[in-house]
Design a protein that fits this description.
With about 325 residues, the protein is of the alpha+beta class. It contains 10 helices and 12 strands. The radius of gyration is 22 Å and the shape is globular. One of its GO terms (molecular function) is methionine-tRNA ligase activity.
Amino acid sequence: ITAAADAWARGATALPKPWQPQKPVLPVEGMRNVLITSALPYVNNVPHLGNIIGCVLSADTFARYCRLRNWNTLYVCGTDEYGTATETKAAEEGLTPQEICDKYNAIHADIYRWFDISFDYFGRTTTPHQTTIAQDIFQRLLARGFLLQDTVEQLQCEDCQRFLADRFVEGTCPFCSYEEARGDQCDKCGKLINAVELKNPQCKLCRGVPVVKPTQHLFLDLPKLEGRLEPWLEQSWATGDWTANARYITRSWIRDGLKPRCITRDLKWGTPVPLDGFRDKVFYVWFDAPIGYLSITANYTDQWERWWKNPQQ
């Protein structure tokens, strides 16, 4: 308190001059370099005040604080644009998925400008950089033996002539009996679901009853990572600032044993899978979307790896 009162008495002229970073903002040797992201807002709706308070505003407040501290700060964000939610919104509005993304990306950007959110760059995930980086990460996983191939039973709507991934199918949750569960998870009990586990499934597009058909998919071999993940988690729980909820969910996943996780979908709208036998499929949005933080930075600067592959700074 004494130090704060003393600084206040000296006035603004005694403060250090504000740091003026170069453009684009890049890590600087010898400075504290801070990269800030906030959760990528999904592109299929108009953001409201709750969305902004939930992630964007808190990150913006922290970014402003960091800049006031004269820390070299980069704040990036952007719209998350792939996945079935975009396709269903496009069907509702009679537009193509790309037209939906273009429309709502512009709406998002305008709203954040109106709120004066201090992004250094606001981008999107439907870019060539996203394709390049996501496919490169996939190829690295493949080369290191962290992917599995398996036949899965999947719901297909014979009227729509398509497999029903994720949000294209709704039904009753097999765990809690919630009647509006989606084909990837239940929003009431939070459990992950395979679409074929739903009771009374319906195609969301035509309300027809789908049938079960086999299809080939690729999986992350998560059980192979358990041996390395558990000691890392124990160390991180001991030294990090995890919320009680995050600890509980992570412990339950480890306790039950990690399962292989499907990373491909029978859709057209998404990052293409660069592997023979799977080129008619795209990556599951939850494999693809987190890579958006990297690709959005890559769209901001071709030296993006200095932020994302630079643990020394």
